[in-house]
Design brief:
single chain; mainly alpha; globular
Length: 168
């Protein structure tokens, strides 16, 4: 979809397209209000600015729109509208060992138990082993620090997905 096409979408369709990039309704509503946008750079800058103005509840809502790293079944079933993008982002997980997948599953559970939300990492270009190392490194963090890290990772994902949206 080109920026011109995105700029001319009816609001409900525009919001649906934006929600594929970030699942936080507050972010989607505020983003929809800035259209039409002049260029991709403006779109990305506004997306970043609006994301950083969102509340923690918005961040956590966005996190619910991601499968757990390594959970390919959930990716295909629950996250069908963004599964193609997420599958590409987690492509390295497909080529990993069962041992790494089991460690990711265990780490995901520990993370969710501690922080109350899904482990969020911008997976593009990372191996399963790298994502596991990041997960393990972030587990000891304090909740007030980890939420900020997860928020920034979501911001990276949103930026990539906005670029994918414009390239589709």
């Amino acid at each position: 979809m080109t920026l011109i096409e995105l700029n001319t979408l009816e609001k409900p369709m525009l919001k649906e397209a934006l929600k594929k990039c970030c699942g936080a309704n507050g972010w989607v509503e505020k983003m929809a209000a800035i259209f039409p946008v002049e260029n991709e750079e403006t779109l990305l800058k506004q997306a970043d600015k609006i994301w950083h103005q969102c509340a923690e509840e918005d961040w956590k809502e966005a996190f619910t729109h991601h499968p757990k790293i390594g959970d390919m079944n959930a990716l295909k079933e629950k996250f069908a509208s963004t599964s193609k993008w997420a599958e590409g982002e987690q492509a390295a997980v497909k080529q990993t060992s069962n041992e790494i997948l089991e460690a990711l599953a265990e780490g995901n559970k520990l993370y969710a138990d501690k922080f109350g939300y899904t482990f969020i990492v911008c997976a593009s270009g990372k191996s399963a082993e790298e994502m596991l190392a990041l997960l393990r490194a972030r587990l000891p963090k304090q909740p007030e620090d980890e939420i900020k890290i997860a928020m920034e990772e979501q911001n990276k994902i949103t930026r990539l997905r906005l670029q994918k949206l414009l390239a589709s």
